[in-house]
Amino acid sequence: MATREQIESTYDYMDELFRVTYGEHGDCSGAMYDGNFSLTLEQAQRAKHDYILENLRIGPGKRILDCGCGWGPVLNAARERGAQSVGITLSTKQVEACRRNGLEVYVRDWREVTSETFGSFDGVVSIGSFEHFCSEEEFAAGRQEEVYRNFMKLCRELLPTGGRLYLQTMMWGRNAPPPEAISLKAKKGSNEYVVAVLKKFYPGSWLPSGLEQIVSCAEPCLRLISAKNGRLDYIETMKQWGRTWRFSPQKVLPGIKSLRYFFLDPDFRYKVETLVRNYNQECFKREIMDHQRMIFEKI
User: Fold this and answer.
1) CATH number at residue 61
2) What is the mean pLDDT of each run of 10 residues along the chain (299 residues)?
3) End-to-end C-alpha distance for the chain, whole angstroms
4) Best label site of 221, 233, 249, 287, fewest CB within 10 Å?
5) What is the pLDDT of residue 123?
6) Considering all CA atoms of the chain, what is the largest pairwise distance in Å, rounded to the nearest integer?
7) Nearest-CA neighbor of 222 among 127, 155, 283, 123?
8) The domain containing residue 61 runs over which residues?
9) In 3D, which of 179, 81, 68 has the Cα closest to residue 122?
């Protein structure tokens, strides 16, 4: 799994600028348009939150755990429904922001969580964090499926019979280059080069190979209830992010503060390149990466 330092290098530098742009509970993951691209980004993110909570059957008195909660958008949506929500993340900036807004969030690795840590839950959520659960080293050592099975075992431990997990993640697509071909020395703009740069943006992380791998790792702990492909929705999300990421006086100071990472992080220039050239969006367009929204139920 990506380390705390690696997660912080991915998300902490954007903390203040992201919140100024998208709000205190900004959502840093794909929204849900379901083919209706006339929706605003805010409407599509709210549609995703409603979809998650309705399928997890979360309402007054229920409890959810969000593994990799970001700035707390789902936790806040659950709170608005009268549910109790607990979040964990490895980003200290995200924890600080969530706590300032009254959310119960901790700096915690999911591998350190048991049923005794926070108690049991009616639903578990993982949006975008699953992408960081397996490190490149664990993949190379053949331990990827072991990592995923351990997470599913944790969900089984935390959930009652019939309790549900919502899992949203990027995964490798049909045009993903073979691991040995991924290189910063590859031709600029090639699939191999783009993925190499993205590895600098998301250090310590390796994507799942596809839906089948995840479903297989969930058995016999959890059974798949439904799956929705979100690749086109993620492309639209990033398009709308691009439209909203415009200059405003409120962004000047946070923008200046973020520049210090350019000098502190030797890979920061690759992160800038990723954002400027929209490499994430390009990966979805080329089908280097795919995206799924899955609902699992404890058997």
Assistant:
1) 3.40.50.150
2) 74 68 81 96 96 98 97 97 97 94 97 97 97 96 98 98 98 98 96 95 92 97 97 95 67 58 70 83 97 97
3) 27
4) 249
5) 98
6) 55
7) 155
8) 4-298
9) 81
Q: What backbone torsions phi and psi does residue 46 show, to the nearest 5 degrees?
A: -65, -40
Alpha-helical regions (H) of the chain: 4-11, 15-22, 41-55, 73-80, 92-100, 115-118, 136-140, 144-158, 191-201, 211-218, 231-244, 252-258, 260-264, 268-276, 279-285
Q: Which two structure tokens, joined as six digits, stand for 79? A: 């709170």
| Eight-state DSSP code of residue 159 | S
Number of structural domains found in the chain: 1
Structure tokens at 210: 């596809």
Query: What are the b/e assignments for 121-145, b being 16+ CB within 10 Å?
Result: bbbbbbbbbbbbbbbbebbeeeebb
Quote the CA–CA distance of 150 and 209 in Å, as a whole number.
Answer: 17
Q: Is the pTM of this model over 0.90?
A: yes
The identity of residue 294, as a single letter, is M
Cα–Cα distance measured from residue 95 to residue 11, given in angstroms and rounded to the nearest whole number? 11
CB crowding 153-191: b at 16 or more within 10 Å, else e: ebbbebbeeebbbbbbbbbbbeebbeeeebeeebeeeeb
Its sign, for the CA torsion 65, 163, 166, 101, is: negative
